[in-house]
Amino acid sequence: MIPAAFDYIRAGSIAEAIDLLQRDPDGSKLVAGGHTLIPTLKLRLASPALLVDIRGIAEMKGIAVNEDSIRIGALTTHAELLASEPLHKALPIFRQAANLIADPQVRNRGTIGGSLANADSAADWPAVVIALKAELEIASATGSRRVAARDFFVDIFSTTLGPSEVLAAIHIPCPAAGTRFTYRKIRHPASGYAVVGIAAAVRINAGVAANLSIGITGAASHAFPGDIAAEFLAGKPLSQGNIEEAARLQSAATECLSDRYASAEYRASLLGTETRRALLALAA
Ligand SMILES: Cc1cc2nc3c(=O)[nH]c(=O)nc-3n(C[C@H](O)[C@H](O)[C@H](O)COP(=O)(O)OP(=O)(O)OC[C@H]3O[C@@H](n4cnc5c(N)ncnc54)[C@H](O)[C@@H]3O)c2cc1C
């Protein structure tokens, strides 16, 4: 449980972090909260020659709730997301989800940017940012680009981030007045990670679902949008029957992950149940 030797540098800016990564893209790793990376090093699943500590980079911190959009710096911790009152007022789903992540120790150190960049198939934030139609701001040597959250996750522990790129911030459009949110998950009993987790947002307009958006984590190799259920319910009332059919269709269309804890069949069943419960909560 002792990592291989590595060098360690604190970067003072995003530009400096990128510069350090570029010198040896395959041999360097960013470290934010370290709550995934440090165990990985201890188990020697990774042995980078250099760790670039980004925790001191001011431009990657803070939550700004503006008129049209909300900016969350990638270094914002789970605990800060849980505590922020302005964020809670604008997007209550953040407090709901942060409260379900691990324990206070992990929440005090782990960052939303680290969680998204790491792309664990069972992490909570990927489902939330997909449901909120967020854009991820990615900085590289050639400038900055934005990627829709739904296109960011590629496979297990794999994203569209390049080896010398830094996830700088998350941008979320302010929701229309009256938008309802929910996040729920079946927790793995040991880690608290999502065996299956569902984030959803909807506005009920003249009795029917408008702008329903769903993010799903835990079920498959990476988080993905629940488009099958959302498309089925578009313009329909969130009745018990419609919700049950939407959940059934989403579950049937998803190729679920199988591991030592849960078989693909069990995850598919949980996906149907959790989607139904999340949508019923929105309808209530
Ligand atoms: C006991 C335990 C329980 C947990 N339970 C949960 C849970 O219930 N739900 C959940 O979602 N998570 C859970 N986690 C994970 C936790 O939320 C981690 O903190 C998080 O996944 C990684 O964030 P970090 O800031 O610690 O990243 P680090 O460990 O510092 O980095 C993780 C990876 O992301 C890269 N990286 C970090 N920041 C950036 C960036 N800004 N740009 C580009 N790359 C970057 C690093 O190079 C590294 O490869 C748990 C962790 C532990 C130890």
Which descriptors apply to this entry?
3 domains; alpha+beta; Enolase-like, domain 1; Uridine Diphospho-n-acetylenolpyruvylglucosamine Reductase, domain 3; Uridine Diphospho-n-acetylenolpyruvylglucosamine Reductase, domain 2; four-stranded antiparallel beta sheet
Explain what this protein looks like in three dimensions.
The chain has 284 residues and is of the alpha+beta class. It has three domains: 7-53, Uridine Diphospho-n-acetylenolpyruvylglucosamine Reductase, domain 2; 58-173, Uridine Diphospho-n-acetylenolpyruvylglucosamine Reductase, domain 3, CATH 3.30.465.10; 180-283, 2-Layer Sandwich (Enolase-like, domain 1). It has helices spanning 14-23, 37-42, 78-83, 85-90, 93-98, 104-109, 112-118, 125-131, 149-152, 227-233, 240-253, 264-283; strands at 7-10, 28-31, 50-53, 63-65, 69-73, 135-140, 143-148, 153-155, 158-159, 166-173, 180-187, 194-205, 208-217, 224-225. Helix 10 packs antiparallel against helix 11 and helix 11 packs antiparallel against helix 12. The longest helix is centred in the C-terminal third of the chain and has 20 residues, at 264-283. It is globular. Bound molecules: flavin-adenine dinucleotide. The site of flavin-adenine dinucleotide has 31 residues, from strand 2, helix 6, helix 7 and strand 10.
